[in-house]
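Lab notes, practical 5.
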Amino acid sequence: MIGEGLELMVAGMSVVFLFLALMVIVMSLSAGVLKKFEKPENTTPGAGSGGAGDPMAEVAVAIAAVQREIQG
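Output from the prediction step:
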């Protein structure tokens, strides 16, 4: 009885391990394939969206707006 339980446990753990290993392999392969279709990033500063994603630029704009409002 205990032997059958151990066999079932080993079989179940083996199936789960093989499934997880297969999943890691498939995800790695799909990441490699999708990387070929990835758009290149725009690396030149100030081009494209005008640096809209730069948090320091947003802070500078906010400071300038507050200073202008205070000065009139």
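Observations recorded by the TA: The CA atoms of residues 18 and 24 lie 10 Å apart. Helices lie at 2-36, 55-71.
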